[in-house]
Design goal:
It is built from three helices and 16 strands. The chain has helices spanning about 5-15, 20-25, 200-210, and strands at about 55-60, 70-75, 80, 95, 100-105, 120-125, 130-145, 150-160, 170-180, 185-190, 195-200, 215-225, 230-235, 240-245, 260-265, 275-290.
Length: about 290
């Protein structure tokens, strides 16, 4: 821009009461810059859209009046479906409660120690290699042989197959496991390259298994099939417990597609003839944007 043009603009703005010194600064060029001057060029306003690897709520079932229909369903999954371990006499049950569902399972006498009857509710999904998903379920008031033999577990997981819970199908599960002598572990019993667990302190056990004032607890499982890793979290009152692990079956670039995810309960060989149940308050699925 010529000096004559600058002078003309200054005269016009001076008549309007605008400081011409400001105009002179604004019209400075790179030729006016002193040595060492590095201008920062701003090209528009930065985008506030979430990055592609940010997890967003894609599914929410909060069980009003015991309904298994979701209130959020961005993946068009549809209602959750009760499973079945196909073990005679295990009596898998899903029943309604106000704002909750009650999931229950029984371990028949004489069952092989290798058989673990479990009852879960599943959302049918499709998460293959390269996907990232976070599952979160909130529970309250577990009932089972905690004060005696232990032997029951509450958890959240993912697996292949249909609605029926067959033991040989690849899976990854995170559980709160009550063992004999009131030892309670937060653990990854299935789906990790190496078993990983942490023993819960007394105050947390008291909060979970209280028969008079049970506290809700949330179990979260993140399955990262971009990195081949998993992360488990347990949130109880003001405490958070976390476990990191390497996925055994659901690898970053290979392995089967996950077709079912959800919360459930199981009774192992430490509790023959025992029944266990838990109330589920909600179940959530988070996925990457567009995933």
């Amino acid at each position: 821009m010529s000096s004559r043009t600058v002078q003309l603009i200054q005269k016009i703005l001076a008549r309007a009461g605008v400081c011409t010194a400001v105009v002179t600064l604004a019209l400075a060029t790179h030729a006016d810059a002193k040595p060492g001057f590095n201008p920062v060029i701003i090209r528009g306003i930065p985008s506030t859209a979430p990055v592609s690897n940010e997890l967003q709520l894609a599914y929410l079932a909060s069980f009003p009046n015991g309904s298994l229909e979701p209130s959020v369903d961005k993946m068009n999954v549809g209602p959750m479906v009760p499973g079945d371990p196909l073990i005679p006499g295990s009596n898998p049950t899903v029943s309604a409660a106000p704002g909750e569902i009650v999931v229950s399972i029984h371990r028949p006498l004489g069952l092989s120690p290798d058989d673990i009857p479990a009852e879960s509710i599943f959302a049918p999904v499709n998460f293959g290699p390269g996907s990232v998903v976070r599952l979160r379920a909130t529970f309250i008031a577990p009932v089972g042989p905690y004060a005696t033999t232990g032997g029951f577990a509450i958890g959240v997981g993912a697996r292949i197959g249909g609605k029926d819970d067959l033991p040989l199908e690849p899976r990854v599960f995170v559980t709160v496991n009550a063992r004999p002598n009131q030892l309670v572990r937060f653990q990854v019993p299935f789906g990790s390259v190496e078993p990983t667990n942490t023993v819960l302190p007394q105050a947390v056990k008291d909060a979970i298994y209280s028969t008079t004032d049970p506290q809700p607890f949330t179990i979260e499982l993140t399955i990262d099939r971009k990195l081949g890793t998993g992360t488990a979290k347990l949130m109880v009152i003001d405490q958070v417990f976390s476990l990191s692990f390497t996925l055994k079956d659901f690898h970053a670039d290979s392995g089967p597609t996950i077709t079912n995810v959800g919360p459930g309960i199981a009774v192992n060989s430490n509790a023959p003839g025992q029944t266990a149940s838990v109330r589920v308050r909600e179940f959530r699925i988070y996925t990457t944007v567009g995933g």
